[in-house]
Amino acid sequence: MVPQQSQSQDFTVYWGVCMFGELADSSWQSNLSFDGAGISRDLIFLTQFKVGAFPKAGIHMFELRPELWEVHWAKLRRDMDRYVPEDFTGIVVIDYERWRPYWERTRNIRNDAGAVDAEDFDFLIDWRDAVRETRRDEYNAVPAAQRLQYVYDTYDQMALRFYLETLRECKRLRPNAKWTYFNFPKLRYYCAEETPRGTIGYGNLTHRASQINDKCQALYDEMDVVVPSIYPQQWTVLGNNFRSDMPLNRQNRDRANYEFIFSNVAEARRLAKGKPVLPIISLRYYMQWPERLWLNDVNIRQAISVSQEAGAEGLILWEGIGTRSEWNALQAMVSQRLAPAVRELAPGSGGGSGGGVANGKSSAGGNNQAISGVFTVGGQ
Question: Long-range contacts for 201-210 (Cβ within 8 Å, ≥24 apart)?
Fold first, then answer.
């Protein structure tokens, strides 16, 4: 891994924290203080069900029912009117997660009892059954030993088509915004199926993990920015200062976390081909021990500094907040640890101290709304 020149004055930290449930109110977002840290609110994070008629059952639904494309486009237009102001020039992150545009990373949990439109996870089996019906002659013409590969190849083509055409339509409807997908390239820490044993992240970017990403190069070419996930996988400690009250398999050293962040950002930069790369982190760990803990100082600071060193143009902060007690804990964490780290490590980041949209990106005046939990301007 070759360090890149760090330029903190060009590094922007973005706020992408969503608020749900009892906190689905713009006032909670606008009242959160960044304590003078330059954190930009010029970003909208849209979950998969707020971006068109995403087929939760799987892409086979569009194969079986081509009329769903028009349903998708119609809902997409409504979603843009609801969630993304026409004059918005910031970043919009689409979070499609249930299935992906490559079969290697798509779940396939068999469910013979499920209906064709069941929202289960047998995506590849459902696709196989669909092409046996819709492409019967073509499928039967393939030698039996090659039919599984045929299923994989046609799945990849149709799934990538959905991702590409959706992104292109979003860009057509809101051409001033910068569009991307969440977690591309997909986060990797340890992955024995795709990298050599002991490799952290994408390693030297030559392994099967990177080759799978190459299959979707057309998607990276269509994105305006690239947003890899660097959600911390373990509680990171300096040196050997492990916590005695936490299992060792839920902790790692700062050097391992460095390699994890650097390699994921480096892989994103390889695929981005010069476009901005903005890794995204969650502000809590996804391990449940005994609850979802807020990030410690080591993980916060490395997310900023290592992303800079790896050549990223910024960092996106994500979390889902649903209760007032979580909100209070979030504000305390921002004030005590996040804001000081941003002020020190990314002093050139734009955004101000909260309560508005950074850089005056929209001309919608004072009509401030919390769109999908993320503070933006002019939404309904």
Answer: 201/259, 201/260, 201/261, 201/262, 201/263, 201/264, 201/267, 202/263, 202/264, 202/266, 202/267, 203/263, 204/1, 205/263, 205/266, 205/267, 205/270, 209/267, 210/267, 210/270
